């Protein structure tokens, strides 16, 4: 009774005016139209300009209208939301345009023949030829690098998380951090001076693998370390309290719990080194012929193939470079998808 | 099966910090001994010294004697891993292995220790789950993940896992503090059954629980924050709760401090 008489005029203090659900979409549509209109009127032709104008209009428009109707707090909330959307779209633009361009240019010569033949008898200026030798080289070099790096990286991470105390652990962490920042050309030069110049070995796939290892190990160590740190200490203690030795606890409890994340980290590291050109250029040299032996003589790899075809400068060579780029992107994408699949498959299960 | 624990002059440290000082007590076989006392007084630390889990914590170290029947757990040449097979532990928060099924969780102790026969495993799992009063609830979902059970079931799963390796002593660190009253009751009943076979030591903040489940009760206290925790007294539970010999115990039990 008293409440009714006390607050007859004001509506519930918990309920304010709200703009309808379609409001952001309407503002977005309006700002795009307005942006186009302004550009047309001002004679601007670049699509970047009208998109930026539209983005600014969108943020300002949502704030203005919302501040009038809903209040300042809701307006600020809408500005934050629209900024997130604008940032998201802006990040998406280069990615989509890159994929679009690569697919458009790459499908021209990408077919079974292209994937299964080398450049052996094809001059750079002629059409034809393929990337079989480059795929083979990439698979072997990256495969060998992964074979060396994963055990070293994972074991280092296990040492750092499970055993490392004191100075040695700190020193290892420090050097891993330093290694993360090594430019790939420096890794290439290091292996060049050691393997080729001092030990007098010729160019080969494995020399490239060594340089790729230097780039891959710190990434594997870092990601594995983070994953191992996520394993709750309670699980280690539960296992130790059952009378399980520490090494078995790590092998049977800690690693299985974190294996999904570790595999994802390894796959991302593989994806990273697959695209490396500089060390391959210095150490593997490149060839137009199929060389399935990674331990002797120059090999090809996909990034280097793209570089060499682009340098060749003829139209058929450009087409081949694009097709190889598309293959490389597809390869890395498949790796990432596989990593996600494994992570999901191996993740601790919570189902009932 | 069950063994007597005889502690004398035990100190435990975290790096240079003395956490518990000069503890001596005897824990009788086939009985339940409860540790009570305010937070931070070293009950859990002391419990963890009984199966050498204290030294797992970085900086953790212990001096003194813990006799399990006639063997000193801190004697020369004693393997902490072997000690933990004799003295099992259940933790405050249920911690089943998330990658393993109910069955694998119970079998984990045997499997990870590498000494089992496949044919025995089924029997051990069933026996342990029955022992933990969980068999009827999970017998149809032995291959489902252990983390899919309810909190109370998970804790009983952890108890089943601990008793599957047939320890002599079972240490329980506030096993019911994360559970609802019904699950708590289930675990308390279980403790009553388990004491026929094991020596049980339980840390609890719940004094009614200590009074319900234990035969003997030890009261721990610390003079001030930063001071080491000490054993004030240990006696039959009935005496501790009716007529304790130390004033501090009576104050704590009647809620006048702590």
UniProtKB/TrEMBL annotation, chain A:
What is a biological process (GO) this protein takes part in?
phosphate ion transmembrane transport
Task: Decide whether keyword Metal-binding is in the record.
Answer: no
- Fetch the SUPFAM superfamilies from UniProt: MetI-like
Q: Where in the cell is it found?
A: Cell membrane
User: In what way does this protein cross or attach to the membrane?
Assistant: Multi-pass membrane protein
The Gene Ontology CC terms held by the record are: plasma membrane
Q: Name one GO molecular function term.
A: phosphate transmembrane transporter activity
Instruction: Cite a single Pfam family from the UniProt record.
Output: BPD_transp_1
Coiled-coil segments, which residues? Answer: none
List UniProt keywords, sorted A-Z: Cell membrane, Membrane, Phosphate transport, Transmembrane, Transmembrane helix, Transport
**Which residue windows are transmembrane per the record?**
21-42, 48-67, 79-100, 142-161, 173-198, 204-221, 253-273, 321-339
Q: Which InterPro entries match?
A: MetI-like (IPR000515), MetI-like_sf (IPR035906), Phosphate_PstA (IPR005672), Phosphate_transprt_permease (IPR051408)
Q: Which PANTHER family match?
A: PHOSPHATE TRANSPORT SYSTEM PERMEASE PROTEIN PSTA (PTHR42922:SF1)
Question: What NCBIfam families would the database entry show?
Answer: 3a0107s02c
Which purpose does this protein serve, as stated in its record?
Part of the binding-protein-dependent transport system for phosphate; probably responsible for the translocation of the substrate across the membrane.
Q: Which family does it belong to?
A: Belongs to the binding-protein-dependent transport system permease family. CysTW subfamily.
The protein's name in its UniProt record: Phosphate transport system permease protein PstA
UniProtKB/TrEMBL annotation, chain B:
Question: What positions does the domain ABC transporter occupy?
Answer: 5-247
InterPro entries for this protein: AAA+_ATPase, ABC_transporter-like_ATP-bd, ABC_transporter-like_CS, P-loop_NTPase, PstB-like
Q: Which CDD domains match?
A: ABC_PstB_phosphate_transporter (cd03260)
Q: Does the keyword ATP-binding apply?
A: yes
A Pfam family (short name) is ABC_tran
Among the GO biological process terms of this entry, one is:
phosphate ion transmembrane transport
An example Gene Ontology molecular-function term: phosphate transmembrane transporter activity
What cellular-component terms does GO give this entry? Answer: membrane
Write down the Gene3D superfamilies for this protein, in alphabetical order.
P-loop containing nucleotide triphosphate hydrolases
Keywords in alphabetical order? ATP-binding, Nucleotide-binding, Translocase, Transport
What PANTHER family does the record point to?
Answer: ABC TRANSPORTER I FAMILY MEMBER 17 (PTHR43423:SF1)
Indicate what this protein is called per its UniProt record: Phosphate ABC transporter ATP-binding protein
Q: Which organism is it from?
A: Streptomyces parvulus
